[in-house]
From TrEMBL:
It comes from the Bacteria. This is Citrate synthase. It catalyses: oxaloacetate + acetyl-CoA + H2O = citrate + CoA + H(+). It holds the Pfam family Citrate_synt. The active site is at residues 281, 338. The lineage of its organism: Bacteria, Pseudomonadati, Bacteroidota, Sphingobacteriia, Sphingobacteriales. One of its GO terms (molecular function) is citrate synthase activity. Keywords: Transferase, Tricarboxylic acid cycle.
Amino acid sequence: GIDISKLRDLTGYVTLDIGYKNTGATKSAITFLDGEVGILKYRGYPIEQLAQKSSFLEVAYLLIYGELPTAEQIKNFQTQINHHTLVHEDMKKFFDGYPSNSHPMGQLTGLISSLSAFYPESLNSNQTAEEINLTIVKLLAKMTTIVSWIYKKSLGHPVIYPQNRFDYVTNFLYMTFGQRTEEVVIDPVVVEAMNVLLILHGDHEQNCSTSTVRIVGSSEANLYSSVTAGICALWGPLHGGANQAVIEMLEKIKADGGDTEKWINKAKDKNDPFRLMGFGHRVYKNFDPRAKIIKKACDDILEKLGIDDEVLSIAKQLEEVALKDPYFIERKLYPNVDFYSGIIYRALGFPTEMFTVLFALGRLPGWIAQWKEMKENKEPIGRPRQIYVGAVDRDYVDIDKR
Ligand code: ACO
């Protein structure tokens, strides 16, 4: 019956849980996951149904506002977003300033953070619900433009401006792969694949980047800054950066002759820092349900696009060997969502360094929903405790005596 938040005042003790392996930091009504069984639901809807039947924008609406939209609500939402896809022209100076070979995630963190400078109404921590919604719409809208412009910059190509006639995902693909000189045809297979990938990345409860968004937002930092912090957290190879790391690993294995067993043994060797990227998960101790969907999507898309990718067969062999190996079985290590996502992104034509940026595009509605929920719940500022293990008492020593 003890209120854990009062534990220290009552007993003098704090709970120590490094890495928050079993510490609940909030109550949330957004995403349910059962890692032992392998279940994932957004607002109660199974991820399998959403991936099969919904669109990314509809899922974004569901995550942020809690309900599936009516036909009119989604139409209005799309219209509002189309209205805000342009970014301030002065922001183009940022694009010009970045070295052309700079990592897209480095650019994304800077550009999203800069939105608070260009759209300062977001700085008011007492925004009305309507004002918050406008900031949300602006962020969702401008993200597609910023991400596609980062890609265009990496090619040295001129940017393409958004068009109101397209839906969210098509507009993004148009700005990314469109050419100014041609009539643009966006392949529906590509639109469908992109929708599925983004839906699967939409939210994943209190992961590293989402917890970061909530903790930064709890200081009443604005939405753009809070989401930027999430993007920074996502970048690491143990989190969203894994999708880039997986393809780099598969390429290395291919160049090394494709001996998957050798690499599995490396991953098992405790004296070798190598880990099988795209394997293992803090919460899933069973198959990641997103990985199941993505594996099938990967087969379908490569077949539809007529692509034969050797790294896909290496990925499948690795999975097969690992799933039979006692090391992986005992530790309940299964492929996670990122094991196959990179192969699809590659088939769609994205360079490896863009993969984590695409993850951020997919996770954006989740970050927004969690930030909004944290505000609506009026959660207190996040501030973990610690166990101090440093020196107890020391007198200052003058520099000439050290
Ligand atoms: N390859 C080899 N061994 C592994 C792997 C792996 N990919 N993942 C975990 N292990 C081993 C650990 O060495 C440890 O072994 P031990 O008990 O003998 O010491 C055991 O499994 C438990 O691993 P932890 O690191 O304690 O698990 P944790 O929950 O802290 O880490 C994580 C989870 C970070 C995802 C980890 O599995 C990993 O590094 N995976 C590879 C990176 C990756 O794919 N990240 C993407 C995660 S999904 C996402 O963010 C979208």
